[in-house]
Amino acid sequence: MAPKKNPSPSISAARAEILSWTAGLGAVTAEALAIRLQIGVGSARARLLSVERHDLLARHRPLADRPSLYTITRRGLRTICVRGLDPARVSAAGASHLIECAHVAAALELSYPDYRIAGERELRRDERERGRTLASAELGIDADAQSRHRPDLVLWPCDPHAGLPVAIEVELTVKAPERLRAICRAWARARCVAGVLYLAPPAVERALLDAVDRAHAHERIAVVPLDALSRERPVPSGA
Q1: Is 215 left (phi over 0), alpha (psi -120 to 50) or beta?
Q2: 239-to-67, 83, 98, 132, 169 alpha-carbon distances in Å
Q3: Residue 29: domain span
Q4: pLDDT band at 141 (very low <50, low <70, confident <90, very high)
Q5: In this predicted model, what pLDDT tens digit does every residue of 110-124 receive, in sequence order?
Q6: pLDDT tens per residue across span 164-214
């Protein structure tokens, strides 16, 4: 006889918020949730495991020396009535980037309460449904979905009249120089965002600064050390 699944719980507002946040970002960690809620990592992990026990979240640990990642399940998506998104896939190759994006998202939400954070998955869905660019950079001459470069995260003002969103890029590895310069040039032209914030470790930061310089994009792109996020409020001016 197959084991019975845990019955779907009556979802509290706190659990629904965790599910919505996870669905939008794709994957989260206990460490990121602890930053977002200003609680201990143990308490955050207990909350995630509690939701996981009801088959609303799935836990992954592809990297033994890094935190576990939690993704929303199809049952979780149905529970909070999210449309247009599928459960995120987690691989060893992409795990570090997902972990850092979750940390950055949590830290930015804490630092900028007048903004809400959205992930690339949400942006892709919204641009597809609306048929236009909302917070992406157009790489090609023809503006279509294939020529767009989407940021990892977007900071949207909670007040729709408060200005344009800020694009957030979490850059952990050095891209090919021509590719990186093309993206920086595209961001320099983009007028759907107030500015672009790159967060990167030191080795990548040097390559980014060179690309920004060659693209003449200093007024549109800010490059900040990844480990400085918790100490500073590095949103570009005009946001």
Answers
A1: alpha
A2: 32, 29, 25, 21, 15
A3: 13-89
A4: low
A5: 999 999 999 999 999
A6: 999 999 999 999 999 999 999 999 999 999 999 999 999 899 999 999 999
Residue reference for tokens 């979240």: 57
CATH of the domain at 41: 1.10.10.10
* 235 in the same domain as 118: yes
Is the predicted pLDDT of residue 103 greater than 70, yes or no?
yes
Contact criterion met (CB below 8 Å) for 182 and 189 = no
Measure Cα distances from 194 to 54, 93, 164, 189, 216 in Å: 40, 31, 5, 11, 16
Report the SS3 class of residue 68: coil
Q: What is the secondary structure of 7-40 as a DSSP string?
A: PPPPPPHHHHHHHHHHHHHS-B-HHHHHHHHT--
Q: What's the number of CA atoms in the CB half-sphere (13 Å) around residue 6?
A: 13
Residue 98 lies in a domain: no
| Amino acid occupying residue 113 | P
2 in any annotated domain: no
**Do the beta carbons of residue 70 and residue 33 sit within 8 Å?**
no
pLDDT(56) > 80 = yes
pLDDT at position 238: 42
CB-based contacts of 235, cutoff 8 Å, min separation 6: 108, 112, 155, 166, 195, 197
Give one DSSP letter per residue of 109-156, joined into a string. Answer: HHH-TTEEEEEHHHHHHHHHHHTS-SS-EE-SSS-SGGGEE--SEEEE
